[in-house]
Design goal:
Radius of gyration: 29 Å
Strand order of the largest sheet: 5-3-2-6-14-8-15-13
Shape: elongated
Number of domains: 3
Oligomer: single chain
Structural class: alpha/beta
CATH topology of the largest domain: Spore Coat Polysaccharide Biosynthesis Protein SpsA, Chain A
Length: about 650
């Protein structure tokens, strides 16, 4: 290791107060009576041996920072690797913060994993090198404990080794933006740059199967026989890039990108510390030229912009090199639709699994599908990625689905606001920031337009008739009489309160109902979105209600569109205009007695009439119909701006 690699942290008592290894039981004897725990010096060696791999199976090497290991932060990754079917899980501990006098408690194995060695390696590459002699399977996944993968990702990643010696996993940050979709060789002696860093994850999904130069995140798979000897450097990204590129060269093939879904980097790799070892490692590529980024980005209709990187040289703390993607020179023109635009749909839902059951998430997915069917390019940005400094210059349109958040407007795109809920939170100042304004409540739209002098057009919510359409019921919902699907915050929602008071044969699904309902009424906390059409078709009556502000201002619930499109009979509280929208599929009530009478009366239309009615609702209120309105409005707005001498999306060239 270069002397500079130690200089920063000389004198730091690394490991002096470290707790016992995570898998070691705490001794019961008093501290004064038990012998001092042996401590081992940091290991600066680089093991060169490689085992003879078998012809089948998968091993997993889990590299883990020393502090994370002592906190047990590797355990979840080890369990996931085991559950995914790994033959052997090798844990190897490292500490790039170490000084030459650092000492640590011994690293010990657990019941579900072996350890590469008892000592702590001084570098990430040293940790991988120590694990190589223990590998016995044909393939190996190398994964740092700072990266989490779903179980199915292991099989997907290793399956890619059928066509390439190295498979590079796409890694996301916690805001669902891309951390890296592979490494770009900026120039022969400069550090690599992360491909698509800061982009929406959907951009990286388009690169699945593309060749890239290397990996720069510790999440990849290699044919074990090709696993190269790592280089010695405290710069982990350089070490990952050299290892994956050297392994691909040994296998005589490329590195390929594999889109794995929700693979997250849960801890940020330490600030880049570019030592002389890294500089030496990069000279290996002095004469090499990388063209893979160009062909990979073509899959997403992008091209590499001008790169920026600090020159190689003396040890420095390096800023991240960036290769910013730009739109390709050829913009697709669609007959009758104008040019293909890139839309960012911004929603209030959290990224990752925490936002999966939000209505905004389903709404945005359906709208994105509809826009794509019209030839548009669409990404969905959750609340943590409304601002994307490294990729927002690509967006032509920023469409905010207004829920809980007042979202910052896009600096250069055409800004569109569609208020679909919480209208009382929207201010005149917020409305004024947008180029185009729509609201799912016609009453609210008219009132606010009159009050502010701003154009606010009504645009109702919608349904997806490819899923919500007439058809047979489902056996699991046979005999279902009166159904309600919706969550609560431990208070009775009005329609459920009225249904209980009316003595109806009620079934409720949703969170927050525990302890509020009579026995047997609460059937579950969640209904999968794909199961909702069957439930609606099966129920004799579907119930719905609105929050007070939504009902007052004419914000018709999305549930009404979905249920009515299946042919269901829906009963709801009064909302202005609702009686005229659904051709008799939706009826309103005012109290428990009226609700009881309507439920007992039930459907008065024949099965054929219900089916025709549902098909008509789906056709009139589809997401495609709403997308057509949005696209036409945006097209007019952008054309008008150009006539005035403005340049919509001008910064796409400014980068």
């Amino acid at each position: 290791m270069a002397r500079s690699g130690w200089r920063r942290l000389l004198g730091r008592p690394v490991g002096v107060d470290a707790p016992l290894p995570s898998d070691t039981p705490t001794p019961s004897a008093p501290a004064a009576d038990r012998p001092a725990e042996p401590r081992l010096p940091v290991d600066t060696s680089l093991v060169t041996e490689l085992s003879r791999p078998g012809d089948h199976g998968v091993d997993v090497v889990v590299t883990v920072a020393e502090t994370t290991f002592r906190d047990g932060g590797h355990r979840a990754v080890v369990r996931a690797a085991r559950d995914a079917g790994a033959a052997t899980v090798v844990v190897s501990v490292y500490d790039v913060h170490a000084g030459p006098t650092s000492v640590y408690p011994a690293v010990v194995a657990g019941a579900d994993h072996v350890v590469a060695r008892a000592t702590v390696a001084a570098t990430w590459g040293g940790a991988v090198a120590a694990a190589r002699p223990l590998l016995t399977s044909a393939r190996v996944v190398v994964q740092d404990a700072s990266v989490t993968m779903p179980l199915e990702a292991y099989a997907t990643l290793t399956a890619a080794l059928d066509r390439a010696p190295v498979a590079v996993g796409v890694v996301r940050t916690g805001d669902d933006l891309v951390a890296s979709a592979g490494a770009v060789l900026v120039r022969g002696t400069a550090p690599v740059a992360a491909l698509l860093r800061g982009h929406p994850a959907g951009d990286a999904d388009l690169l699945d199967g593309a060749e890239v130069f290397a990996a720069d995140e510790p999440c990849f798979a290699v044919r074990t026989a090709d696993l190269a000897l790592p280089v010695r450097t405290v710069d982990t990204r350089t070490a990952v890039a050299r290892l994956t590129r050297d392994s691909a060269d040994a296998g005589g093939g490329p590195c390929v990108v594999v889109a794995l879904g929700r693979v997250y980097r849960t801890r940020v790799l330490r600030e880049r510390r570019y030592d002389t070892d890294a500089a030496t490692a990069l000279t290996h590529w002095r004469t090499r030229v990388d063209g893979t980024a160009i062909t990979a980005l073509e899959r997403a209709g992008l091209v590499p912009g001008l790169p920026a990187a600090d020159p190689a040289g003396a040890p420095v703390a390096l800023r991240e090199p960036v290769v910013r993607a730009e739109r390709g020179a050829e913009r697709v023109t669609l007959r009758d639709r104008g040019e293909r635009l890139r839309w960012s749909i911004r929603i209030a839902a959290h990224p990752g699994p925490g936002g999966d059951d939000w209505g905004d998430t389903f709404f945005a997915r359906d709208l994105a599908t509809a826009l794509r069917s019209l030839g548009q390019e669409v990404v969905v940005d959750h609340r943590e990625s409304h601002v994307r400094p490294l990729s927002e210059h690509l967006d032509d349109v920023a469409l905010t689905l207004r829920g809980l958040d007042d979202t910052p407007v896009h600096p250069v795109a055409t800004n569109v606001l569609w208020v679909i809920s919480h209208p009382d939170l929207v201010t005149a100042d917020e409305l004024a920031r947008y180029d185009l304004r729509f609201a799912a409540g016609p009453v609210w739209a008219a009132r606010v337009a009159a009050d502010t002098g701003l154009d606010v057009a009504p645009l109702l919510q919608a349904t997806d008739p490819t899923r919500f359409h007439p058809g047979p019921g489902a056996p699991e919902y046979a005999g279902l009489d009166t159904a309600f699907v919706g969550k609560t915050r431990q208070v009775f929602r009005p329609v459920v309160r009225d249904a209980v008071a009316a003595g109806l044969d009620l079934a409720v699904w949703g969170e927050g109902w525990e302890g509020l309902l009579p026995e047997g009424v609460h059937r579950g906390v969640f209904v999968a979105n794909e199961a909702l059409p069957s439930l609606y078709r099966s129920a004799r009556v579907v119930l719905n209600d609105h929050w007070d502000d939504m009902a007052r201002d004419g914000f018709v619930s999305n549930r009404l569109f979905d249920a009515a499109a299946t042919g269901a009979l829906v009963l709801t509280d009064p909302v202005p205009g609702v009686d005229e929208l659904f051709h008799g599929a939706v009826r309103t009530y005012r109290d428990a007695d009226e609700l009881r009478g309507l439920v007992h009366q039930g459907e008065t239309s024949s099965a054929a009439e219900r089916a025709e009615r549902g098909t008509r609702v789906g056709a009139e209120h589809s997401f495609v119909r709403r997308a057509e309105v949005l696209l036409e409005a945006v097209r007019r707005q952008r054309a008008g701006g150009q006539l005035r001498g403005e340049r919509p999306g001008a910064s796409r060239a400014a980068g």
